[in-house]
Amino acid sequence: MTKEIKENSKTIDRELNDYYQQVEKDVREQTNAYLTGVKQVLETYRTKVQSDYCEMQKVIDDNSSKITAEVKTLTSTQVKTLEAEKENQEMNRISIQSIRDFVQQLTDTGSDIDVMTHSKKLQTKIQELQTSEPVFDTKTTDITFTPGKKMDLVLLFPKIPEPRPLSIKKGSITAKTYRGPFDACFGSLKQETVCYPELMEFQKVTLLETRERQISFYVRRRLWDTQCTDDGCFLVACGIMFLHTARTVCVFSSTGELERELVK
Description:
Number of domains: 2
């Protein structure tokens, strides 16, 4: 029975472990398949949104390029006009400086006739230079950029497929156990009277000369069922029968000495 318990204990451990590994394998395969499907949905959605972002960025870049080109054209025209007027003003400055130098020279070295001759011309020229106006439009163009509308529309999360119920195969067990109370599972001892062949020779009664009583106790068995040993030698010396029952049994050793006397 102990052997069966050990064998079945090992069997149940092995079978349950094998079944768990099989369930784990099936669950992982089904779970991996579901996760693969979810990943594909998310990847598809991400690709679409990123494509929309790229398209929006392209529109923004195109408009930005157009605005930049317009601003460059406008500022370039104004810069050219300003540069031309700057050159004109520089020429006027040089002219005024030349007139001042000539007037100074005329004042220092010229005669009264020379002064009278050139005075009127110089005054006229100075008046022309003082009253000259710029030939370009001095008004500047203000450029104001209005930013576009912010992205305030929240994206909707993609629909994720519902997971399917797991398909688990039913396991089987070959290990055995006992039914009912455990006491019924144990074996039992049964006492039986056995006559050994080697004792048959000692069933004959042999009377010895010397007898001595030492220990007395009740004998509930018949004479030929009583067994005593002395160094492997079985001796029954005598027995007084009364109604097929031994009342007194004496046991002697192989040397003839009285060892036991059984009285009933």
